[in-house]
Design goal:
Length: 574
């Protein structure tokens, strides 16, 4: 029989006898890892520091005898196999040793072949060791996260429950922190899952370093971590810990040869103010974390009762949103884009509206962020694309002048691997020329994974579809990416249009964007034009196109058809 290792503790005062025993074990097919001791103190220490598969002990030694050694071993662990090895043990003493608790005995000088009974004990010892290790592994998998080695949800809840019981007895405070990494998915998408795993292990190490040894750090799932802060004197102590954690995480690190800075959102609940049991405290800390994330991330928030009310409202809204998608409660409105040189409507932007039977018209500011968080924005975005292209075909068949329909793509939708194939399929199904479609994406979407973004844009552009960069000026606004990426149009964000021509800074920004775009042969569309003064300024600066309430509010497909049918030009109101 051959095994990897046999951990043997040998109680012997003669080195030669020890070596003879070890050699015999090797000849028997074992690979012994052994320690030899010859005093009570050394035996006690060895039993305390290591876990042993088997103990071999001489019967007669100067410092103490084998019977004493057996008593010491049994006191530490009654299940370790104990074998006497002696040159002086007689049959009567051997029987007494077996009665005392030894499994068997060997006679020195007769170790050429291990006795069958000893062989059996060795095999049983190995089996027990393997069973113990299997049990330890199962215990680890049941209670710890395999990637980081941190406690998992099961062990976290158990420790939190224990901490709450202790706090109840002492009228103490316990803090629960719920931490979620900001934009972790972007790391996985751009650098790969190995890089993501490295980042998670780094976060685990930094969290452990940031808290006391009496506190608990756990990983629940994905990029979500939780912490138990015990024996708090004041509620604000949890905020001190949160600030320390955010500072520790913010230290730069290198992953997959990329310099990264970790950002996180933290929610805090405190026992007994914010909850009296583990699940309630964890749930309230979770809700607080989402509030911190909505305020921009890299931030912490304490639980407040109104957060729970908002969370309940959001859950109800999410249910209604799922039902709305199934029952097609959405409609598209279209806002004209007017060419200033001619005054003609040359394009429209498709804008999603939700007409809820119970809530009435729901603002996109309410449901679009929720759709993005829940992943519903992907099927919703596909519906918008199909509906807008179908409507563009209807206008074309009716004989109206060619219109370019602009459709907004969310970051989540833009990252879909089958996006280009989907767009091609929709155009083919509607027999719509690709120049009738314009894809709008934001600067932040473009920069989440520049390599993948460039590939997708190039493939869309190769199909004949034009690309518009939405909300220009509010994100990265880098000249280098305007040079790299195939962009056909820039949309000046309404925040830069709102205060022109009074605000000199906004005047300078608009003039610079228009002049730069002209040099790069890129169209400029100004959003949010609401006054004649704004319109005149943009025309004077050479802006190509505008859209906004001053010209035309978003209209249904039927109303827009009437505008086009009556021959109204985009300049009919000024």
């Amino acid at each position: 029989m051959s095994i990897e290792t046999l951990r043997a503790l040998i109680v012997e005062d003669e080195l030669n006898d020890t070596l003879l025993l070890v050699n015999e074990l090797k000849r028997g097919g074992y690979n012994p890892s052994f320690v030899c001791v010859d005093t009570r103190e050394a035996l006690e220490s060895a039993l305390q520091q290591e876990s042993w598969d088997i103990v071999f002990s001489d019967f007669t030694m100067p410092a103490f005898n084998g019977s004493d050694a057996l008593d010491i071993v049994r006191r530490h662990n009654p299940d370790i196999p104990f074998i006497f090895v002696s040159g002086t043990i007689g049959e009567e003493r051997a029987v007494a040793a077996i009665k005392q608790g030894a499994q068997d005995y060997l006679i020195k000088g007769h170790l050429k072949r291990l006795a069958p009974a000893v062989e059996r004990e060795l095999r049983d010892a190995v089996t027990r060791r393997e069973n113990r290790e299997a049990q330890k592994r199962l215990h680890f998998l049941a209670n710890y996260d395999a990637l980081t080695g941190l406690p998992n949800r099961v062990l976290f809840i158990d420790r939190l429950s224990h901490s709450l019981r202790m706090a109840q007895r002492s009228s103490g405070l316990v803090g629960v922190l719920y931490l979620d990494l900001d934009n972790f998915k972007d790391v996985n998408d751009s650098l790969g899952h190995n890089a993501g795993d490295t980042l998670l292990r780094t976060v685990a190490d930094r969290l452990t370093q940031a808290v006391r040894t009496s506190d608990t750090v756990a990983r629940l799932a994905g990029d979500e971590f939780t912490l138990i802060l015990t024996n708090l004197e004041h509620r604000d102590d949890a905020a001190v810990a949160a600030r320390k954690i955010l500072e520790q995480l913010s230290q730069p690190l290198e992953v997959a040869e990329q310099a990264l800075q970790i950002r996180a959102s933290v929610g805090i609940s405190v026992f007994p103010v914010d909850g009296t049991d583990s699940e309630e405290l964890l749930r309230n800390a979770d809700m607080s974390m989402y509030l911190a994330k909505q305020t921009g991330g890299s931030h912490y928030e304490f639980y407040r009762s109104e957060i729970g009310e908002k969370k309940a409202e959001r859950l109800e809204l999410l249910k209604a949103l799922r039902r709305a998608l199934e029952q097609r409660e959405f409609v598209l409105h279209y806002q004209p884009q007017v060419e200033l040189a001619t005054g003609h409507i040359v394009g429209v932007e498709a804008l999603l509206r939700w007409q809820c039977p119970e809530r009435g018209l729901v603002s996109p500011e309410q449901f679009i962020p929720l759709a993005e968080e829940s992943g519903l924005v992907v099927p919703l975005g596909e519906w918008v694309l199909r509906k807008a292209c179908a409507q563009a075909r209807i206008w074309r068949d009716t004989g109206y002048p060619p219109l370019r329909v602009a459709v907004n793509f969310s970051a989540c939708q833009f990252r879909q691997k089958n996006l280009v194939d989907l767009v091609k399929t929709v155009l083919d199904e509607n027999e719509l020329p690709p120049e009738c479609l314009e894809v709008e994406i934001t600067e932040s979407t473009l920069m989440q994974d520049t390599t993948a973004s460039l590939k997708t844009l190039q493939e869309l552009r190769a199909c004949g579809i034009s690309i518009s960069l939405d909300d220009f000026g509010t994100g990265y606004s880098s000249l280098s990416y305007l040079k790299r990426f195939p962009v056909d149009a820039l949309k000046i964000d309404r925040s830069f249009v709102r205060d022109i021509p009074q605000d000199t800074d906004d005047v300078a920004i608009n003039s610079a964007i228009i002049a730069m775009a002209a040099k790069l042969n890129i169209r400029v569309i100004a959003e949010g034009v609401e006054t004649l003064e704004q319109l005149n300024f943009l025309r004077t600066e050479g802006c190509a196109m505008v859209q906004g309430y001053y010209l035309q509010r978003p209209a249904s497909a039927q109303d827009l058809a009437l505008i086009l049918k009556n021959g109204r030009r985009g300049d009919s109101s000024y």
